Amino acid sequence: MKDVAMVSFAQRQEAAIPNESEVEMMIPLMEQAKDAVGLTQRDMGFTCSGSSDFLAGQAFSFVMTIDGTGPVPPISESHVEQDGAWALYEAWVKLQCEDIDTAFVYSYGKSSPGSLRDVLATQMDPYYVAPLWPDAYAIEGLAARMLLESGKVSERQLAETASRSRLNASTNPHAVRTEQKSVEEILAEPYLSDPLRPSDIGASADGGAAMVLAVGDRARSLCERPVWIRGIDHRSDAHTLGVRDLTSASSAAIAANRSGVGADRIDFAELHAPFTTSEAVLTQALGLDDSVSVNPSGGALAANTMMAAGLIRFGEVFERIVRGDGDRGVAHATSGPCLQQNLVAVLEGE
Amino acid sequence: MRRLRRPTGVPALARNEQSVVGSAPLSDVRDPGEGRMPQEVLQAPLVLEYPFIRTTGPVLGRFLTGLREGVVLGVKRADGTVMCPPLEYDPADASPLGELVEVQQTGTVVSWSWGGPLRDQQPFTQPVAWALIQLDGADTTMLHAVLVDGPEQMSTGMRVQTQWREAREGHITDIRGFVPCSDEPDGTSSAKPPSTVDLDTVEPVQSVRTPIRLSYSYTPGRALSQYLHAMKEKRIIGDRCGETGQVFVPPRGVSPVAGKATTETVELADVGYVESFNITRVPIATRPDLQPPYCSAWIVLDGASVGFMGLVINCEPESVRLGMRVRAVWKPDDELKISATNILGWEPTGEPDEVIADIECIGRVGPQQKGGSTS
């Protein structure tokens, strides 16, 4: 098994980026991530991206964004219709399997042109559920009520999570929801989709992220403190909501176990929790105790850039370790309704 | 505005020196070195529709046939429990399932949420509650709507029953929704008892209509907005790569050769040559304006490094050939819009054909402008 590290990262998240095409939005990030380690596209052994046509409203939209990488001469490339964290996973596998020592990963999403909560209805079972067009908040509301009524979490605890996200986001230049609110203020919010309040729901954002991965000594030659991927795994629960226990995320628990969460001290965890309820379920599934700083960036509650929020969790851990805020962190990404699919990685500084 | 036509000179190329075909640096650079000229970035409504018709297979088809006939079916799992709605496989171990059994039309709300104001696509007439409903006789839950006036009428554990549509076709929306009922504990249910319909004797449902319709406000971005604005003035602009000098049209704000943002726009001639073409002899149902036979061509404008698509018009399709010189046929001035449709097509200029010296270059990105022959 090769040691694979993150060596550079760039991100951009804004409430809306209305004036740029996807490729126009991504080029500066791609350049920034490559320039940081002095690499060009020709140095990349593999390139993988993540995006979704349903956000852009355009079939095969990702093929236009590839131009931003500079695929002349042709590059070794792949795309996942998933969050960029899964593109990172594919790149990690490729680095393990092939005689290459660098990879470029990027992902992006512009949700503002459409209505994300409705677009997400199209990911539901196309026979039984999608024709009813339940929006994403209503779906999460079903899990939230089960969670609340099971006693695993209280509305106050959810409000505390929301309030802490806003506080942490205040020092994150990429967060879009930074207005401070106390727990009491959040509890006073009327329900948006009972039992979810506006502050329980991740702030939708447009944006993207780009990252360079490198192997072993190549990584050490590219940056001062590579952040090593010590363990990584992803698992999926069933798609049918009716056969799952929505108060837990067994796929996240398995992925956490297999990636080595719990084997050693963790300084911080960046969890891709699109809702406060998701964070409650994930904290439990990953077995994170109070010693772990959860979502010091504010997390996806502060900026939920569809298709990039998971990769950005990796980037947030990377930047904290590079800065010296800590040595070991957990990055998590999710996809699908109610935390159906979960990817977990343990990351450690050189 | 000066039109580029057979420019001369030899540019310094950062890449692909071996494939220099033409000549010429690009002049007529607008806004040199200052970035893209600020101009209104366009937005337009975009509706994405997929008229999906899905085949159902035997299990889902049987369930939907049941809905059409007013009965609800589940499927038996190996452990004897019943999953409703049924799947063809057990999500726990992927074992195939196929024994369908009727379940009751009453059930219990296991969880619920309030949807808030009705969303555009939702097949209801007023806001609904969403619920996971465990029907009596089933061991899993079904997601559906509960038709009540507000969240205060909802509670976990409440009893509900099906409310059917009058006209049913074998679709999940044949159940209009669920409505509260009070049959607990000893049953005064007004729901239908298990039916006597023999599903083997009725026409089985084999497909289901599940159209998707989503609305967007689409932006083509800065580069294409500028391109479309220029179209209104019968101008064609491209993007110039800062590294290689190559010119791309339509502009996308990026040089795919360098993988860098482009910073210069270039005005191109509205004349060029046919680099490739095909003749279509069958009609396209959604394009009644395209009467076959018609000729689609890959047209390389003078000053451009790549070709782009256009129709060759005002000549017999059979007369079109590689290297043929063509010029844009614009709509009348009073019909010009901010739109690429301002170019009706491309007609022969009658000039001598372009000499395409190296057939291998066809379809490739040229190092500079294509157009091998110089005047």
Word description of this protein:
The complex is a heterodimer of chains A (350) and B (375). Chain A has helices spanning 22-35, 53-56, 62-65, 84-97, 116-119, 136-149, 155-169, 183-187, 216-222, 250-259, 276-285, 299-302, 309-323; strands spanning 4-14, 47-50, 77-80, 102-109, 204-215, 227-236, 268-270, 293-294, 304-305, 328-335, 341-349. Chain A folds into three domains: 4-115 and 204-222, Peroxisomal Thiolase, Chain A, domain 1, CATH 3.40.47; 116-200, no CATH class; 227-349, Thiolase/Chalcone synthase (Peroxisomal Thiolase, Chain A, domain 1, 3-Layer(aba) Sandwich), CATH 3.40.47.10. The relative contact order of chain A is 0.19. Chain A contains 13 helices and eleven strands. Chain A is globular and about 55 Å long. Chain A has 350 residues and is of the alpha/beta class. In chain A, strands 1, 2, 3, 4, 5, 6, 7, 8, 9, 10 and 11 form an eleven-stranded mixed β-sheet that branches. In chain A, strand 7, helix 11 (276-285) and strand 8 form a beta-alpha-beta unit. Chain B is mainly beta and 375 residues long. Chain B has two helices and 23 strands. Chain B is elongated, with a radius of gyration of 32 Å. Chain B starts with 28 loop residues before the first strand and ends in a 27-residue tail after the last strand. In chain B, 38% of the residues are buried. Residues 1-35 and 371-375 of chain B have low confidence and may be disordered.
